[in-house]
Write a structure and sequence with these properties.
single chain, 100 residues, alpha+beta, GMP Synthetase, Chain A, domain 3, three-stranded mixed β-sheet, 4 helices, 3 strands, elongated
Length: 100
Amino acid sequence: MSDSKEKYEPKPIKSVLKNIISQKPLKKGVQQIKICNAWGETMGDHILSYTNEVRFSHNTLYVTLRSAPLKMELSYGLDSLVKRINDHLGDEFVHKITLV
């Protein structure tokens, strides 16, 4: 009598999760979260404390700040901020930062 159940080899959870995350819709969402988190990781806690919202759409990082003077100060160095965030991410995801 043969067993009709297939035998499966156990796989490491890391490889299973990697396969799940690599699916296009999920990969895009995870990537957007990493990009948004890069704002706080590169700018530090002080700037992050004045940040209301960070979202990423169409290669643009939209950052809502609650301090007009900080927004003005950061607006002078947006190109260097784009480079800093992309360096942190290891790829050219962000083409532009818009301060709101």
